[in-house]
Every structure is written in C-alpha cells, then in structure tokens.
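lol ok so funny story. i was supposed to be doing the assay writeup but got distracted and ended up predicting the structure for this chain instead. priorities right. anyway since i did it might as well share w the group, maybe its usefull for someone
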Amino acid sequence: MTRPFRHPSFRNTGMAKGVHCFMAKTVRFPKPLPTWEAALEQFLLWQQAARKRPATVGDYRQKITQFFTRHPEVWGREDRLREAALSFVAEPGIAAATYNLRLVYLRNFFNWCREQGYVAANPLAGLKRQRAEGRTVVLEEESLCRLLEQPDQGTFAGLRDFTLLLLQLDTGIRPSEAFRLLPSAWRRLSCSTFSKWSVTAVRPSGLKTFSRSAVRTTASR
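and the output, tada:
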C-alpha cells in the first residue's frame, strides 16, 4: 500500500486512523527595515492621524532628526542604539526641561518602532522625567515701562506689538501661542480671573509675576 506523500511544510492534525488531513504552516518573513528617515515619516503620519497639534508633530521631527543626525550609524544596530540614545538624552550641561523633551519624544518614537518590528526593545524604557526647578522672573516697574514704550502705537505694527506685549504680561502666554489664537478664544480669555494687584501665570517654564499697576500706568499714557 502506497503511503500518502507528506510535504515537510505540512503536518498531520491527528484525526481518526486512515484519515489524513494536512495543514500548511505559516511562514513569517522578517519585515524589511526602512531607513530612519522613512520610519520617521511613517511615525509622523501616525501622529497626524492621532490628531496631534502641528507644533507637536514639528517637535517630534526636530528632536528625532537631531538624534539621528548625530548618530546615523545606530539605526538597525541594536548593540549601539541604547548607548547612543542614553548619551543623547543625558547630554551633560542640558537643562532638565531639555532632558524631559528628548526623553519623551524619543521614547514615544522607539515605542512605535518596537510595535512595527523595527527595534527589538525600547532603549529608553524605564527612564523617568527629571524634576525641573521653578524660575521666577521679576521685572522692575521702570524696565517694564521702558519696554512698553518701545512700540510706535501710531502705526499698525507698533499697535500690534504693544497689544501683544500687554497680552503676554497679562496672561503669561507665549508669542507662538498668541499667534495661533482664534476669535473664538477671546471669550475664554475674558473669563479668566487674576488677582487685583498682580498677574501670576504658572507655565512649564516657571513662575512669572508682573505688576498690574505698571501695565495700567503705561497703557494709559
């Protein structure tokens, strides 16, 4: 009696005697590794699909490009990637805020790379953010008045700059944030509450305190 032919890629499922059922094995081929530039573009596209702000996507591009510009040889080299990533994040002399930004952006990128099969493990896994010390900025009233007197309010550009300075002093907003404001945001700003004699805005960069009397005096001139 001729035995049924069994290809090496098939196996017997162990069914009843005399009945042979064969199942093909699944063969997984390794995923081709793209360049780090191509991987970055895929990651940024994923970030955009997740509805991340354009500024955040731009920060991802800047930090990740900065890392691979310094260490282009480590992409695809698991034995050198961890050392390079740690040295970049913990570069001597950088502030705690810079450390935290590099850590968060690179760690998220490598997490995504691990899910895609581009790296075996995240080289920055387990690291925690550093605590950034607060920074207090105190402006003398005379210096503040001289600053507000610089824009020529007789021109459109001067009036715009003067208004922007007042907005920054009153809310602690960054210029980049102020330029992204829409008309619908002004109602929310007008509902903000401030102390009677001073304006205190707590931001990631620290604590900023300005004298409201100085702003009122200069604005009324």
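The chain is about 50% helix and 10% strand. The two ends are 111 Å apart (CA to CA).
back to the writeup now i swear
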